[in-house]
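Sequence in, structure out.
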Amino acid sequence: MSESQTNAPDSPRRRAILDAALEVFVAGGFESATIEDVRRRSGASVGSIYHHFGSKEGLAATLYTEGLSDYQQGLLETLAHDPAPAEGITELVGHHLRWVEDHRDLARFLLVRPSTDVLSGASGRIAEQNATVADAISSWLEVHRQAGRVRRVEPDLLLAILLGPSQQFVRVWLRDGGTTSIDRAASVLSAAAVAALVLEEPA
C-alpha cells in the first residue's frame, strides 16, 4: 500500500485507528485512555496515530466530528427530497433514534457525558456542523410556516421541540437501557413533535 493510500481520509489504517479509539474511549473514558491503548487495539504504530491525528485530543475530536457528520448527513438527506411537514418530522425523529440504535458506541461517545477536552478541541467544527443542520431544518419548516402548515416557533425553540425529547430519551436508553423499544419511541415521539409543530390542513 502506498503512503498516499495510507494517508487518505478513508484509508483502512486510519479507519482502524478511529474504530480502536472508539472502543477504548467508550470502555474506560477519554480521560483515562492512552495512545498506547489505541495502538494495542488498532495494531497501528504510535507514529502512525500521531501522524494522522496529532494527539489523543485530536484523535477524539476527529472521531467526534466525523461521527456527528455521519449522523447529520441522514438529517440533511431527509430534507433533500422536501417532504411534507408531518412526513419530514416523522423521518427526522426516526432517523435520530435509529441512527443511535445502529451506532450505539459512537452515540455513547457523542451523547453521554462527552469530555470537555474533546468538545473544546472540536468546538469550532461542531458549531459549524450544528449551524448547517439547524439552518437547513429551519429553512425547510419556514417554507411550510409561510404556507400555513406549520406553527410559528422561535428559532431557539424549534430544534428543542423537534429533537429534544428524542435526545433525552436516547441518553437514558444508552446509559440505563429500558423497556421501550426504539420503534415505539419513534412512533410516540414523532407523533408528539408533529402535534406540536404541524397545523391541520385547511378544509
